[in-house]
Design goal:
alpha/beta, two-stranded antiparallel ribbon, single chain, 34% helix, 300 residues, 8 helices, seven-stranded parallel sheet
Length: 300
């Protein structure tokens, strides 16, 4: 098995210094669970020291129980934010994330909810404001991906579920959050390299991620005069539970090796980009999609 250094520039060794370049074959049904993955994703850079970029702010992170959402929630907490993260029913993963945020010294609400339905998103925002009194940042991050070899294999039920999860929830959460977002607030949407290059066995997923990019651009123009910024992050292959639901077996042994960096990302490597977009460091950035993809070049 080949290895690749994850922390090549940090100057000291850590227990996470190396990651597997090739992941063992495995597959999960939805929703994927982080605690059963082999190896476990690396959600935190232990060398990352916060500098109060988000001090005493309040952030909602959908899908914050695991994967990129977990890494973002922990990085936000290190920067001084209180966190509300939403998850479906992955209670063990959610408890692990909540415990870590509280160990950092920030308050945390972990709310189970099916965000395909508008009323559930409204309840999440209402509970956030009742608990913390405000909302500063919304991270729309949940997603599902169901592999199918042919477009004719995508059922009506699957198509509706994929769109309801991957883009309708972004609309619903944003609609619920808008009355509480103030000038200086930020909305961050998780897109994907698949929006630009497509995944031939994930046609509906790729389509929803294209919608996320367009949603980000249009919404940013709609609310720029309110002083609210809207941006997106487009990862390429990242070792998260979604990957183990979207790919099978031997596909994982070469995951991300088609990028110039010759490996998949770990979730912690995405988190600083979300911190940047949530903070005033990016106060002149809106309507943009930032590509964190190991140098992956799309066809468009």
């Amino acid at each position: 098995m080949k290895y690749y250094p994850v922390y090549p520039y940090y100057g000291k060794k850590t227990k996470c210094e190396e990651q597997l370049l090739a992941f063992p074959p495995q597959h999960q049904e939805h929703p994927g669970l982080e605690y059963v993955m082999n190896p476990r994703p690396i959600y935190e850079n232990p060398s990352y020291m916060g500098s109060q970029k988000l001090q005493d702010q309040v952030a909602i992170v959908t899908g914050g129980d695991s994967g990129i959402g977990r890494a973002v929630s922990i990085a936000f907490a290190k920067e001084g934010a209180d966190i509300v993260f939403v998850y479906l029913n992955e209670h063990r993963d959610a408890e692990e994330t909540k415990t870590k945020i509280e160990e950092i010294g920030r308050r945390c609400l972990a709310l189970p909810a099916d965000l395909r339905y508008k009323n559930n998103g409204m309840q999440v925002v209402d509970q956030t404001v009742k608990t913390f009194g405000k909302l500063d940042t919304l991270v729309n991050n949940i997603g599902v991906a169901y592999p199918q070899e042919n477009i004719t294999d995508i059922s009506e039920e699957q198509l509706i579920s994929t769109f309801a999860t991957n883009i309708f929830s972004f609309f619903f959460m944003t609609q619920a959050a808008m009355p509480y977002l103030m000038p200086g607030s930020s909305i961050i949407n998780t897109a994907s390299a698949a929006a630009y290059d497509g995944e031939k066995n994930l046609i509906d997923y790729s389509s929803t991620k294209g919608a996320v990019v367009s949603f980000t651009r249009a919404l940013s123009k709609s609310i720029v005069e309110k002083g609210i910024r809207v941006n997106a992050v487009a990862p390429s292959y990242t070792w998260t539970p979604l990957i183990t639901t979207a790919f099978y077996g031997d596909q994982l042994t070469t995951l991300g090796t088609n990028t110039p960096m010759k490996r998949a990302a770990q979730p912690f490597e995405l988190a600083p980009t979300y911190v940047y977009l949530a903070s005033q460091d990016s106060q002149y950035v809106t309507g943009q999609t930032l590509h964190v993809n190991g140098g992956y070049v799309t066809s468009s």
